[in-house]
DNA sequence: GGTCTCTATGCAAATGTTTGCATATAAATA
DNA sequence: TATTTATATGCAAACATTTGCATAGAGACC
């Protein structure tokens, strides 16, 4: 499992407490790897037991005490070893696709409303990504270079949200009209790809 | 969890044994919901205990006995109730994105090779999808109408593989050249979208 | 004055997933 | 002839994730 490695990567970038890490999983890396605070605390305990991370307790006057975790040299080797191995992509499990697959059993009105709502939500996410991209491009070249890798993952996120929105709009329309798609997807994509070049 | 509901959907379409279902999770619905044979057997047991499915033992002469499962009326109601509720989309967890995010710690040659391999694999998957689409479009309208919902999920799969391939190619190139993307993703997508209309 | 949110941690139990093993027969392949 | 593949099922243990609860002080909001 790579929750372990996601944590090591975050701690390699910057040491932090369990709470900090849980927050960090809410944005940035959280766009492609999710973890709850419980997962983080439990995993930190294991990593600590395996000597892959270490911590120092920082007493705080008016806040609860903090355990600030840091990656160890052993942890860094383990991380590098993991990076060398080819990924085995996790299973794709999309509840929405399962639902569309069985849409003949569903209430059409409810499904239409649900799609409308999902389109809004994904559009908001895309808007957020678009804003981050504008920020990236307004930075100087040195900053852009430094932020290159996170930005590449953002480009993946933008593509991802974009196609979901396009697909959901298409499905919503077709279900409403009780119609069939006219042209093969492959054809449409090939045509669009030509223009990009 | 919707492994439960995926199984109910499959059994609603057509009764079958645990083995059958496990096979069916290898294609069709398996493109967006995965399950191993163990998951299937364990879930069938639970579903059976909850009276959502029932089974008959079919003795076979030269093969092990088969338990042929069927959805019950209770199961069908449970399925419909589930379909009414809005989906909560599962967490996105992409090991590859985590790796790219931390590519500065990785061996560039190994990463390049890995991307090359992944591009090939996803291209093969896309080719398979393209073939299924050709098949769909070569069928008569009645068949196309009957296969509409699975085909809509296929369109999602095609888009999905397509953007992964595009993104991986882009990343591979940029990492090899140690370059930065020139244009914002949003701009490229907007331009491509205009042409499709 | 009371509730809500944020900081900060974590136990315990339930639930879900994965891995390893086990069985058994037939047919195809090497 | 020996191995592999396909059919067909499932237990048991290990591992991972999710949910509910618990604590505790500070500051903001109503």
Structural class of chain A: mainly alpha
Q: Give the largest interface pair and sizes.
A: A-B, 81 and 80 residues
Helices and strands of chain A, in order, run as HHHEEHHHHHH
Distance between the termini of chain A: 38 Å
Tally the helices of chain A: what do you get? 9
Bin the helical content of chain A. Answer: 55-70%
How would you characterize the largest beta sheet of chain A?
Answer: 2 strands, antiparallel
Tally of strands of chain A: 2
Give the overall silhouette of chain A.
Answer: elongated
Strand content of chain A: 5-15%
Q: What is the average per-residue confidence, as pLDDT of chain A, rounded to a whole number?
A: 94
Low-confidence stretches of chain A: none
Read across the widest sheet of chain A, the strand sequence of neighbours is 1-2
**Rg of chain A:** 22 Å
What oligomeric state is this?
Answer: homodimer
Task: Put the structure in a nutshell.
2 copies of one chain form a homodimer. With 197 residues, chain A is mainly α. Chain A has 9 helices and 2 strands, in the order αααββαααααα.
Structure description:
- The structure is a homodimer of 197-residue chains.
- Chain A has a two-stranded antiparallel sheet.
- With 197 residues, chain A is mainly alpha-helical.
- At the A-B interface, helix 1, helix 4, helix 5, helix 6 and helix 7 of A face helix 1, helix 4, helix 5, helix 6 and helix 7 of B.
Give the topology, please.
The structure is a homodimer of 197-residue chains.
Chain A: H1 3-13, H2 18-24, H3 37-49, E1 53-58, E2 66-71, H4 73-84, H5 95-101, H6 108-138, H7 141-146, H8 148-177, H9 185-196
Antiparallel strand pairs in A: 1-2
Chain A binds a DNA duplex (30 and 30 nucleotides) through helix 3.
């Amino acid at each position: 499992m790579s929750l372990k490695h996601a944590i090591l990567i975050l701690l390699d970038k910057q040491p932090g407490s369990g709470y900090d890490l849980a927050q960090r999983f809410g944005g940035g890396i959280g766009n492609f790897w999710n973890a709850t605070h419980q997962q983080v605390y439990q995993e930190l305990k294991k990593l600590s037991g395996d000597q892959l991370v270490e911590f120092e307790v920082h007493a705080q006057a008016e806040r609860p005490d903090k355990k600030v975790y840091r990656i160890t040299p052993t942890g860094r080797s383990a991380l590098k070893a993991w990076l060398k191995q080819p990924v085995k992509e996790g299973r794709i499990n999309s509840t929405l696709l399962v639902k569309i697959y069985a849409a003949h059993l569903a209430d059409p009105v409810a499904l239409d409303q649900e799609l409308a709502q999902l389109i809004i939500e994904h559009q908001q996410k895309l808007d957020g990504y678009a804003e981050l991209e504008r920020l990236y491009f307004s930075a100087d070249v040195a900053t852009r270079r430094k932020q290159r890798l996170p930005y590449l993952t953002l480009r993946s996120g933008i593509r991802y949200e974009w196609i979901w929105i396009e697909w959901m709009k298409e499905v919503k329309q077709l279900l409403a009209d009780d119609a069939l798609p006219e042209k093969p997807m492959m054809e449409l994509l090939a045509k669009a790809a030509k223009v990009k070049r």
